[in-house]
Specification:
148 residues; alpha/beta; Rossmann fold; globular; binds flavin mononucleotide
Length: 148
């Protein structure tokens, strides 16, 4: 089974927590999974067999957290060859912001523009909803892994 590399963008730790739960769930489902807290383009291109799972929050006014910005910059500036690479998106935001989930949509768009193939619809988690983000992510992962 291919490895799943979880590319994390987190400012205050929620997306990191969701990524850790996702890793545990994926491993219990028989996948190899790693969490990458400082993702860069080379982590994708050096591991061509990895399936990618972007798990990022939003900050500022629709900005990506600082730790995932190098990946976004690399995607949009260097146009790496990632056509056909399969990926999923977990996008953590808060609907009280006018820029709800925009940063997660931007990195999804950047992947798509380069020809990467998103598996399933992104999971958008709203901090305002009161839902448990880890439980929601695990439920979504059940469908996502089936679609891989
Ligand atoms: C200063 C600040 C700015 C934020 N800006 C946005 C935003 O522009 N859009 C959005 O959807 N959520 C925004 N959020 C909400 C966070 O993305 C959300 O609470 C998320 O769960 C935090 O995850 P993290 O702990 O991994 O950073 C913001 C939160 C803070 C504290």
């Amino acid at each position: 089974m291919p490895r799943i590399q979880i590319l994390v963008g987190s400012e205050m730790g929620t997306a990191e927590m969701v990524a850790a739960s996702a890793k545990d769930y994926l491993e219990s489902s028989g996948f190899e999974a790693i969490v990458n807290p400082l993702p860069e383009v080379a982590d994708i291109t050096d591991n061509p067999d990895d399936i990618l799972l972007i798990c990022t929050s939003n900050t500022g006014a629709g900005d990506l957290p600082g730790n995932i910005q190098p990946l976004y910059l690399g995607l949009t500036r260097d146009f790496p060859c990632i056509a056909g690479r399969r990926y999923g998106v977990i996008n953590l935001g808060d609907s009280s912001y006018a820029t709800f989930a925009e940063a997660g949509r931007a990195i999804d768009h950047a992947m798509c523009e380069l020809g990467a193939e998103r598996v399933g619809e992104p999971l958008v988690l709203d901090a305002c909803s009161g839902d448990d983000p880890e439980a929601a992510a695990i439920e979504w992962l059940g469908q996502w892994t089936t679609a891989l």
